[in-house]
Amino acid sequence: MQKTALVTGGCGGIGSSVCRQLARDGYFVYVNYFNSKQKAETLADEIHGKAVRFDVSASTQVREFFNSVDGLDLLVNNAGISHIELFDRVSDEISRKILGVNLVGTLNCSRAVIPAMIRKKSGVIINISSMWGQCGASCEVDYSASKAGVIGFTKALAKEVAPSGVRVNCIAPGFIMTDMNKNFSREDLNLILEDIPLGVFGKPQHIADTVSFLASEKAEYITGQVIAVNGGMVI
What we know:
By secondary structure, the protein is of the alpha/beta class.
């Protein structure tokens, strides 16, 4: 029987690579989106999956989706937004949105998928955090806080559901070249590159390969871990 996976924020730079890789791995993939309908549907058609629209920060919408499917084998909590600004200038609205999507969205989707995984005594949840969740980033305080929360959540949930055969892990990407970073100038990019020991920027496929590994039987004894994929930028 074909395994099923949901990738939230599935048509973004990292999300689309994860969706394609999971399809190659044999999964039927639900591509979650909120605003990018055309991109999500095009990607879903490409990988023979299904585009599904819901706001991960809205628990009612999340529950509606999970009630419509017969459980999942894999959940990848990838949906995320960032915002660069001095902390005391960030509006309440933006702060709530960052925390709502990045952290609350991860909790919402995980809470909805867990009951079916526990009944089956199997399942994998992979949360996408950030290196800034590990060490913090100036002018991205709310984002860093949300991603640090994802790390703490991963460790706690992993302990809770391990006796039921469910694994929960976290990936902390470094500087990955996606549209999220398109506003950086060439000068800024060169400065960032100087801080990466391997001397190259990350690619979305690096994250997709890590998801593929953590979802596989090769990682059956790995849970509650934070896998840093950052070229040595944060050690």
